[in-house]
Amino acid sequence: xxxxxKNVYVLCVISIxxxxxxxxxxxxxxxxxxxxxxxxxxxELKNLLTSxxxxxxxxxFTNPNRFGGFTLLMDFDEKGYVKMASDIDExxxxxxxxxxxxxxxxxxxxxxxxxxxxxxxxSYVPEVLKGTGFEGDNEFSFYSANExxxxxxxxxxxxxxxxxxxxxxxxxxxxxxxxxMINNIISSLEDPVYQVIKITKNGKSTLYNFNYNALMRxxxxxxxxxxxxxxxxxxxxxxxxxxxVLNPPLEIGSDTYTDFTWDxxxxxxxxxxEGSVAEIVYSNEPAYINNDYKDLGTTAYSLxxxxxxxxxxxxxxxxxxxxxxxxxxxxxxxxxxxxIFEIDRVALIFNLAGETDPxxxxxxxxxxxxFNCNYNISYTYKDKKVVFTYHxxxxxxxxxxxxxxxxxxxxxxxxxxxxxxxxxGRFESQYTxxxxxxxxxxxxxxxxxxxxxxxxxx
Length: 458
Prior knowledge:
This protein is α+β, with helices and mostly antiparallel strands. It has six helices and 25 strands. The chain has helices at 2-51, 168-184, 313-318, 321-337, 396-405, 409-413, and strands at residues 56-61, 69-76, 81-86, 95-103, 107-111, 139-146, 149-154, 160-165, 194-201, 204-209, 211-213, 218-224, 230-239, 243-252, 255-263, 268-272, 276-283, 302-306, 343-349, 362-368, 371-382, 385-393, 419-426, 434-440, 447-453. It has a nine-stranded antiparallel sheet with strand order 10-9-17-16-15-14-13-12-11. An eight-stranded antiparallel β-barrel has the order 1-2-3-4-5-6-7-8. A hairpin with a 2-residue loop joins strand 14 and strand 15.
């Protein structure tokens, strides 16, 4: 009996040892397989990235609900370096940095050291978007690929980006041509600042506002319908040498418009479907006028043009070239009188406390070389515009400078045709002051951006 128990014990021990060894082998085999699979996937991505003779290109829409698309050219080598160029800003110089392929939730591509793409990833760039930036990524999960395309998703924001094979000609021309196309969507000196989307179908045309934010490459659009309801649309804009690409596409009824081609002769962008045509054209007035003009004197108690903020991206994008040139011409004449004379503020101040005379209860204040030049004005609303009327100088500085400011600035602001008014979000990212654009109804080439003030003039 003792012998039988002993044999059973030995068999059990052998069985346990055998199972333990088997489990170790399985675990080792499993680990080797997982590691091998990861390694193979990493190598697959590296082979794809480095196999394209002229690298890759992509239009990166960092957040299609807020921003347009930015083109990147990328050429990866076996040593872990990537050469990159972009149309993000005027700095189009090719730069080299380090990339890595490693493991996240899946195999991912990381742009490890600074390059053009980090301008989209930096929450402090540009200044006016401090805190969020362009909401881009510098790490991308690898999802799929074919012979000419690699698909990724941002690790942080899960936004899809597709790499397509680039050509030698792309490296010679793409970024330069894109930058030229970017300028085509911005009005020239002869163009009004307004653009509209003109949809023509079955002989009938419908106009939509094309409110383009050059800094964000983003469009908000609206038009009233036949039953007086408002149709609002928005989309990001990316650029190609031929024209524009919209994301999300513009959908009007059963028609979808994604790619617009630049028509140089007519200075328009055109997209065609089987039964309709969409054109982005210049206009002397908006297709739809909102009610932002009613804010003046009610929730915005003053508006100020800030000529001293030369680095404000929103101001640079919204102040029209013709208006900027007008200020420069006036400053040139002012400096002939005194080198310190230069306009740094133009303010519209509404509903001054204690003033009952309508001709004195509102001011046009122009600050020149630190001196406030005050002029009495009144304002009214007309045809969904604000109209300012001039009533002469209010102080001695105003009388002294009047010959330099009128005609020119004063007669522009106090034109009897008035201004279209549009709220443009925050004037500066770190403050809550709203921004308003004022566009001359008499000459829609003139637009200025002004900082609003919520506080009443008590």
